[in-house]
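Running this now, will post back.
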Amino acid sequence: MTARLRLAAQWTTLVPVFAVVLLVLTWGRELPGWIVAVVTLILAGAVLAAVHHAEVVAHRVGEPFGSLVLAVAVTVIEVALIVTLMIDGGDKSATLARDTVFAAVMITVNGILGLSLLVGSLRHGTAVFNSEGTGAALATVATLATLSLVLPTFTTSKPGPEFSTVQLTFAAVSSLILYALFVATQTVRHRDYFLPIVKQSEKASPVEEHAEAPTTRVALISLGLLGLALIGVVGLAKGVSPTIESGVDAAGLPHSVVGVVIALLVLLPETIAAVRAARRNQVQTSMNLALGSAMASIGLTIPAVALASLWLTGPLVLGLGNTHMVLLALTMVVGALTVVPGRATPLQGGVHLVLLAAYLELALNP
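Update: finished.
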């Protein structure tokens, strides 16, 4: 067992460093097919390494700080990727922020949340979580999504589904305030609303706890390696994005599919971490990761692209179309019905996964 842990520590240390080195060597260059294959392989390794180091940090700091660290770290680097692609893409990237943010919301609220509920309920009978904390998170996500992605479709100050400068500033400031208020609620005033619930049967006969918490030094090293791994994941995802765009164009698919693929790649670490938590019957941790990621994706991306719009010359299209607004509304209604009881069966998980499948199908065939 010790040898296995030592081996895990070795490869999870080497892969993030190698990913960053590969990123430096390939940044801004046109990559041949075999290099893309190597980059994709290292990207997958960096995802697994990021999950490992996120779990080490989470074990040290405890919930809900652990899920918050991973959600914020992934989102900050995702924002950097979106802004970089927008700067490089010109008018073609006018909808990139909207497509990527909406994809992140659908993947987290339906995909990660649904998969976690399905895994947790199948393995433990019923997936149990705190409805107060999860409900507050879902309400914040719904408000942020409506203010940032729905209202631009209906405003009239500027033609097209765009905000005027004043409206965009309001949306950006509101997003930051709501996100900061939620983080304060989650980590300080009502932290107990976001802690995993222990069933009565588990209190009577507790299962084996995790290994002893890592030292501060080990946690800090893992935090640094987590940052490297996430930089590698997002940077290498940008490196293969021209190949993704070429494949999307060659297949005759809508350009919005690029945003979906980017979101899927970037959210892989959180998906794996959430499913692992659900398997351990810590569904609340999975919910924190899913909804926290959705919230961070909107609450940090909208202010960032609002700031970037000061020097970007092309339009910034944020308003969703009718089909996506229907999917968003259905997702929030179903999410509220899932959250209110504080427990879920495989049915609820399956419903959310079907909504994700519907979104993906409509992204390919609008």
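Residues 1-5, 203-210 have pLDDT under 50 and may be disordered. More later if anyone needs it.
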